[in-house]
Every structure is written in structure tokens, then in C-alpha cells.
Amino acid sequence: MIKQLSVFVENQPGSMMNVTSALVDAHINIRAISTFDTPEFGIMRLVVDKPKEAKEYLTKEGFVVRITDVIGAELKDEKGNLNQMLTILAEGKINVNYIYSFVIRAGKAPVMVFHTDDFERAEEVLKAANVQIVKEDELE
Questions:
Q1: Model confidence at 62, in pLDDT bands (50, 70, 90)?
Q2: I need a surface site. Which of 12, 18, 43, 85 has the fewest CB within 10 A?
Q3: Which of the 8 DSSP states describes residue 28?
Q4: In this predicted structure, what is the pLDDT of residue 117?
Q5: 44-63 burial, b for 16+ CB within 10 Å, e for fewer?
Q6: Which pLDDT band holds residue 106 (cuts at 50, 70, 90)?
Q7: Residue 50: pLDDT above 70?
Q8: Does residue 57 carry a pLDDT above 90?
């Protein structure tokens, strides 16, 4: 499992920069980011190097922050690999709520980060299909 921060921000200029600035001040490295917005607010989903410390610092700075588990699946940068992983999950009756990727791991394959309601089953299905699951401590 990988810990993900969800930070709620107002939908106005500079709100995301305020989050990233706070993380810079706290010496937190952002490894992956995905955003979602509505007319009034946005959600920043972040994978960082120190999730607990990041949550504490951002909360102290007045942000609303949640930590959730997500799964990281290592996929080679080859045509069709994402589709193959999603097929494995669909055939295993695993719903994917959202997905995003990151590739900042020097010399290693990209990681697809996704959220599901059934983490245990998702990991079991992926491992059975020889998909490499990435753990929090393997992100360095």
C-alpha cells in the first residue's frame, strides 16, 4: 500500500501553490499529484515522501487533509500495459475509483496509482497475474 494525501482547496488562483509552498517549507517531496475540481473547490491527491509529517504540517497550516491508502502497480512503459492491468482488475470484479501515474523513479518503470474499495482482493488479483505491486518504502 501507498499512503496518499487528499487536500481540499478553494477553486481560486494560488490555492494549489499554497499547498505546494507549505510542503516545500516542511521539506516534503511530492512524488505524484492528481487534481480534481468543481466550481467551488478542488481536491489535490498527492503521494509524498513523508505522508504523516505532511498531513500534520498542512493541517497546522489550516488545510483540510485526509490520508488514504492506494495501490501502486509497476507497469513497463509499453503499449497496452495499462489496458492489460485494467482488464485483470475488471475480470477480478475489482472497481477502480480513480487512477493516475508517476515516473520519477530513476531507472524504474512507471507506477500507476489507483484507488479501489477492495484493496486486499485487488492486490491478490494483480499479484496472481504477475503485476509488480509497489510498496511505500520502494518509492525512493
A1: very high
A2: 12
A3: -
A4: 85
A5: bbbbbeebeebbebbeeeeb
A6: low
A7: yes
A8: yes
Nearest Cα neighbor of 75 from 85, 63, 65, 86 is 85
Q: CB pairs under 8 A, 24+ apart, for 58-63?
A: 58/5, 58/7, 58/19, 58/22, 58/23, 58/26, 61/22, 63/7, 63/8, 63/9, 63/19, 63/22
Position 39: which residue type? P
CA distance 26 to 43: 20
Distance separating alpha carbons of residues 92 and 9, to the nearest angstrom: 35
Other Cβ atoms within 10 Å of 125 Cβ, number = 19
Residue appearing with cell numbers 478542488: 42
Residue 19's pLDDT is what? 96
State pTM to two decimals.
Answer: 0.80
> φ, ψ for residue 89 (rounded to 5)?
-65, -45
- Per-residue pLDDT at 109: 64
Give the position of cell 485487488.
122
